[in-house]
Amino acid sequence: MPSALRRKPDPLTLTDRVQGAYLGLAVGDALGATVEFLTPREIQHQFARQGGVHREIIGAGWLHLKPGQVTDDTTMSLALGEAILACGGRVEALAAAQAFDAWMRAKPVDIGNTVRRNLVRFRRSGLPEAPPCEHDAGNGAIMRTLPVALATLAQEEAEVAAAFQRQAHVTHNNPLSDAGGICLTGMIQDAILGGSWIDLKTRARALVTAHPQYAWETGRPQANPSGYVVDTLQAVFQAFFSTDSFESALIDVVNRGGDADTTGAILGALAGAWYGHAHIPPRWLKALDKTAASRCSEQASQLLQTSRAGRALA
Ligand code: MG
Ligand code: MG
Hints:
By secondary structure, the protein is mainly alpha-helical. It is 58% helix and 0% strand. It has one domain (14-313): ADP-ribosylglycohydrolase fold (Orthogonal Bundle), CATH 1.10.4080.
């Protein structure tokens, strides 16, 4: 039995947490995208009339988004989730690669360099696994792990890790991306399955033990996090573990600037799983693009159903 399934009774239902995770991902992406690539100082200046803090979903940013519009973090997750559902709940590399390729052909609003390069390589070679590369330690594979976490909720840890790697290696075949993504996937699952705060912290600390560059309890806030997977997860862990609500955690992480849509999306998925759907501020859910919101909600239910079919969950 995975350790995540050994837990205390939970006042929130699995549905609350699964819906919270998927809508949290989209809300975090939409909120963060407004300030992507800004520094904390630039954000303070731009939002001086709001007390120097960015806290509303208003679109714009360097991508000139409509209010509530989401970016690649959400749409790649949805593409992956659809591929998983089409494979009966299994995370398969070729299906993931084909789904990402179709997503890229549909001209998404943004796309990471590593994702683009390795999807072009897939188109040419037909091989759904990128060659190992020490430079491919961006956050592009971990930002889309939520559907993997949901589809493998009832599975053993080794199976969860292998599933993460099958989807991740389509574009990012890198040990730091793997370690961070497997840790994050486990933390999201622990949160959904009712694990404790200590369970989540233990996972994050185990990641630091194996890969000390991930150390986040340094007393130095990770400001302006880049797309490097280590910077991303340090910012997410600092914001998540130092706050006590979905809203405060998400506002903390996106106001650090940098790759704010991606730190927002990852934090949103984790905090949404932890606090549940009911704790996402209604004004953010209302502002979210309606099509994206309904796709996230529907896919969350379908992936949970797939997991339930695989094993009895509470
Ligand atoms: Mg994005
Ligand atoms: Mg980003």
